[in-house]
Each structure stands twice: as C-alpha cells, then as structure tokens.
Amino acid sequence: SLNCVEWSLLPPATEEMVARAEQLKGRFQGDPSFQYEYTEINAEDAERLFEDGKEPMIKEESRLVATIEQIDRAVGIIPQGAFVKTPLGSVRENRNFEGLSLTEAKKLSSYFHFTEPVNLKNKTLLEKADLDPSTDFLDSLEHDIPQGSWTVQLEKGGTVVVLRSLLWLGLTFYHVPKTKQYGYVYFGTGEKNLDLPFML
Questions:
Q1: Which three-class secondary structure string do you get for 147-200?
Q2: Is residue 52 within 8 Å of 37, Cβ to Cβ?
Q3: 43: which residues sit within 8 A by CB, 6+ positions away?
Q4: Considering the entire predicted model, what is its pTM?
Q5: Burial class of residue 187 (count of CB atoms within 10 Å of its CB; 0-12, 13-18, 19+)
Q6: CA distance from start to end of the chain
Q7: What is the pLDDT of residue 22?
Q8: Which pLDDT tens digit goes with each residue over 126-147?
Q9: Residue 59 DSSP code
Q10: Which residue stretches, if any, does this entry annotate as coiled coil (predicted)?
C-alpha cells in the first residue's frame, strides 16, 4: 500500500527473486517501483544476467516479496503439536491442540520451523526412534545455527511466552500456554543480522 487505505497483494516469490534479493544490502526505500542496481555482483552472476537479456537490477517490490519469503522460511514457527502429519503424509491443523504447558512452553525444543525439514533428514535412526512421526516431523528451533539465535522470555506475569529472533531482528513469536493462541509478527528493517555469530 502506498496510502495505507488501498491494499493490493504481492506476487508469489520465485527462487530467482530470492537469489537476486540475497545479493542486495541496505535498507528498503519505501517505493515499490524503485530499481536497485547490483553494485557488488560477481562476474559470473553478471554474465548470466546479461545472457538472459536482463539488466542487473531488481525492483523494490520483488525484493520485498523475496525478503518476506526468506523471513517465513527462516523464522516462521509453530508450537509442538499445533499441526499433525497424517499417515498419508498430508499436514493438517491439530484440532485437539490445547496449547503447551508452561514448563514445555519455556523450552526452545517445543517450537518448530513451519517449513520443509532439513535437519530432521540428517538424524540417525536411533535419534528418530524417540520422535513421534505425527507431531515431530519438523525441525526444532533448539538446533538452529548459530546456537543462541533465539531468546525465550515470559511476559505479562508469566502468562505469555515470547520468542524473539536475533537473526531477523524484529521477529516476535508469542504463545499463551494452555490455550490455542500463538502467532508471530515481524517489525524490522528487512535486513538479516549477519553479524550474529560474532555477537554471541
């Protein structure tokens, strides 16, 4: 939206958009039609772009779409048990989910990335033996690299658990223990904190 009254949907992200947006650094301009030029692009990528007949630039609208996709992939999370995997392989919302207990809600291992698992595929059969295939089919936040990229805090007198990402500053996840209430919101600059490994 340019006026906060009329809103339109963003186009879906493609792998090419994400790859091109990852090469850009700096803050957003606030103008969807603004075109970024690649100042620090390696010769191989520049040659490929020119071969495709495309100039080495990207619009801010495309960069925004790609950044939202990156944030969702990296820090879109759900509490354990909120979704279940059926024996046929489809993933559905768990209607029996009544929230995590306060003890479980304070553990980073009780939250999962809501994307295709990566680390789970690398686990041994012994490590997978203790997992419930219907609820433990996603990657846990406790194995995120770098270690310590999440903070867990209690708010409102211990009635709300809040997780904050130190990798994407501005991402806040909340869960009210013993209820179905959970969600996340991002209020940030759209820049990944690449200095995090040196800050921990």
A1: CCCEEEEEECCCCEEEEEECCCCCEEEEECCCCCCEEEEECCCCCCCCCHHHHC
A2: no
A3: none
A4: 0.78
A5: exposed
A6: 37
A7: 85
A8: 666 667 667 777 888 888 888 8
A9: E
A10: none
